[in-house]
Amino acid sequence: MEPVGSILQKRIRELGAYINKNKQPKEIKYKCELCQDRGIILLDDSTGKVCDCTGFQKERQDHLFRFLAEADWENFDLSFYRSDKIEPGSKLAYRQLAEQALSSARDFVNQVVQGCAGDGLVIYGPVGSGKTLLAACIARDLIRHGKNVVFLIVPELLDDIKATFYDDENGESKIMIQAKQAEILILDDLGAHNYSEWVRNKLYSIINYRLLNHLPTVVTTNFTLPELDKYIGERTTSRLVQMCKGVKLAVDLDIRYQIRRIKERKKR
């Protein structure tokens, strides 16, 4: 096995070559000017050291904490879902779908709190339909009941997984272990990202582990499960179908736009 020092030196050389080849414009603002958000500081003698900064991760966690702190069942406002608009697939009104989704989310929380190993949830629907808010309400309620919830935003999770490519040579990364073994895992925004085969395998590994160990999982996505096939692969989608109940939300206008309109009217 290649020594850790050699692996680090190789990575530093690769980083140096990449930076020299792809000079960044001066106007780019980094969260950490020392390491330029890479986590490694390159030194003049072609060596490097791990940066002490944790600002980027802390900012992400603080933002997530504030979001979860504001999430509450009462904030899932059914008035944003129209009763006179019918969703073609289910032939139900948007309001009815939202009521069903809210009921399924509450049932999921109750099952987990009571220790029943029931189905997880795949909450799907268009952008701005309230998927993330519903998932956050689930997370907050479970935390209130003393459950350990890991809430991961998939694009950020993928960045973290890719950043551990070299670490995986010496064992599974911490982020993978956390995602696999979390008491309750919520994966937010599983969508049309650039999934390499390596990343697809990592996602499969997480989902398959949780299926085999009967660990509660909630996923939000803009796509139906059949549509997800071409992005995350049939193996992973098949396991999601096996372990999760599909819950649909539908709106004709992004709820964030609706909220903004209401605020603007109040200012007049």
Task: Report the oligomer.
Answer: single chain
* Radius of gyration over C-alpha positions, nearest whole angstrom: 21 Å
Structural class: alpha/beta
Largest sheet: number of strands, sense, barrel closure: 5 strands, parallel
Question: Could you give the distance between the termini?
Answer: 69 Å
Look at the structure and name the CATH superfamily.
P-loop containing nucleotide triphosphate hydrolases
Number of strands: 9
The fraction of residues assigned to DSSP E strands is 5-15%
Question: Which H/E pattern describes the elements?
Answer: HEEHEEHEHEHHEHEHHEH
Q: Unreliable stretches, pLDDT < 50, 5 or more residues?
A: 45-50
Annotated CATH topology: Rossmann fold
CATH class: Alpha Beta
Average pLDDT, all residues = 80
Helix fraction, binned, reads 40-55%
- The strand line-up of the biggest sheet is 6-7-8-5-9
Number of H- or I-type helical stretches: 10
Number of domains: 1
Shape designation: globular
CATH architecture type = 3-Layer(aba) Sandwich
